Every structure is written in C-alpha cells, then in structure tokens.
Amino acid sequence: MLREDSPLPKGYVIKIFPDMKLVMRENEVLGSGELRDLLLAILKGRAVDGLTSESGGRGGIFYADTTGLGKVVIRGYRHGGVFGGVLGDRFLSPERFLNELTITERAREAGITRLKPVGIAYRETMLGSRGFWISRRMEDAKTLHAYMTIFPPAREIIEKTVKAVTKMHENGIGHADLNIQNIMVVTKEDGLEVSIIDFDKAFQKNFLSPEERMRQLRRLDRSLLKWLPENSAWRRPMTRLRFAAAYCKVFPEIRPLLKEYIEGFDRYERRYRLGWFLQRLLGGAKKPL
Length: 289
Description:
By secondary structure, this protein is of the alpha+beta class. It contains nine helices and twelve strands.
C-alpha cells in the first residue's frame, strides 16, 4: 500500500473499493466506479464494449470511451528487462505509480506536457501490487516517431522538440525513457506543439548534472537509429547535429560530453546494435506503435 507519508498531487484523492484503490482528481471521482469496472475487466481478460487494445509499452495499452470520463488511455505497469520475466506486473508497492502521477502533474504545471492524467489505480494481493496509469486521450496528436515517418526534418519541429527537452531539464526532471515514441506532436491551428509523455520511473532534482542529461540525449538519439529506416533524413548526422547545437545554446556546459559522443559515435553505435541484437534474440524487442 501507499506509505502514510506519501503526499498526493494537489487536487487528488484516494477512492477505495474492496478490490481496488484509485488515486483520481477530486472533481472526477464520480467516474471511479465505471473506471474500476473497466480495469477489473482488463485484469480478468473480459471483453467490454468500446474497449480496444494494442501492444506497446511493457503492460499493453488500452483505449476506452467512458460515460463519465470520456476517451481514456490505460497503460498497465510491468517490469522490464530481466525483472520482467520474473516479476511480470507485480510490484512491492504502488509508490512507483504515484511517482509518475506526481511528476506528470509537475511537468504539466511547467508546460512540458499537455497530457492530462485521470489518475492511477492499483490492486493489492499477497504477491504484490498490480497497477494502471489512466489519462485522457490526446486528440490530434501523433508520436514524434510517426511524425518523422511522414515529414522531413524542419526547423520548427526540431526547435520545439529541443525547447520541450530543455524545459524539462531546466525543471530538474529526469526522464527514464526519452525516445521518439514518448514525445508527442500536436497539430494546432497556429502550428505544432511538442509534448513529452510517459514519466514512469522519472525523477526530479534541484539540478540535473550534465552526465544525467547526456544519458537522456543519447537515449533519444539512439531511438532514431533503432526505429527509423536507414534512408530517413532524420538519421543524417547534420540533422542530429542541429538538435545538439540548439540544446547547447541553452546548456553550453554539455558541449564536451556531446563532442565526446560525436567523436566516439562508431563505438557507441556498435554497442547499440549489439544490444538490439540481444533484445531480438531474447524476444524483448518491441516494434514502435
């Protein structure tokens, strides 16, 4: 269960059912019963009208059109890597779920994401907690990966992606899985808006070290190489250097680390490709949505 000293994000309350607990916005708690029934159906593998699913993430992604909460996205929590094969979707406590909710709300306040959480839900058993993340569906949005498969590199999208990432780092938020699947591009009448999502296992500090920021930038760069075709213009060194140059304007102290990465890129790429090969060999690699 949640620790007694675990603070909830402002405006959230705990709704307790005999078989499930939900942490939801106070003004949306009337929809908790419908949501609880929906989550129980997912846990038991029952078909529900209006509920669809697709592979993605570690615990699968579900889409539902609810009466009280509108269109929602549900993601199940699941361990990755070696722990995934042993522990699956069981966690010692729901603290990890609450951490994602807390940091997402901080990111919303800072303008880093426009994702609107509905809340989290978890069910406690003798074997641990099973949890879900629930948010409203972002309309007129596609992943940066999907955007890159359609449109060529352009100054607007590069600068707005850099702005979102640097704002996140300025606010001391460290993203555990920064990649082109976890950055959304929203089409608006006055242009594009970039929004970072999926703050599972994220952390927040007063200050992120250059090394911490560089690890996230390498992960983002790595995702281009992993998921985009060889002939994609987004994979070209000059396109990626434009992103690096724009980031350095905000954080010039990271230049030495970026220089080291660029100069030793052949070594990094060989390491990446070995890791991807092992993932495929072990059946752990997932295709992007």
